[in-house]
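Encode chain A's predicted structure.
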Amino acid sequence: MLKSVKVQDYMATGLVTFHPETDLFAAINSFLRYKISGAPVTNEHGELVGIISEVDCLKAILTLTYHEEEVGGTVGNYMTPNVQTIGHDANIIEVARIFIDKGRRRLPVTREGKLVGQISRSDILRAVEEFAQHT
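Encoded structure for chain A:
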């Protein structure tokens, strides 16, 4: 039964992450280098404190340009601080429901308040495909 398939079995680990003090352009360079559109932001204890996305970076650049200010700043200045997460032991049906109801593409995965991975729509589809092959 799919409800027995856990997030921790299909989540991605070894994520690109940033700290709030990370230079905004260092984050942009990482997005380009790793071909990603966003990344979790963690504090020194590994706790999730936000998400920075390409859209956040574009908003920062447009805001700074509009005000004719120096381009720059830190990830912490422009990240989205309130992030929905999912527990590592949640089942994939629960995650699929969030993806459908909330229009999310991916969710950070936490265990005891610390970031341990990320689950995406494609991870859920992979889990369903593997489950179907074994039934």
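The beta strands are 38-42, 48-53, 86-87, 106-111, 114-120.
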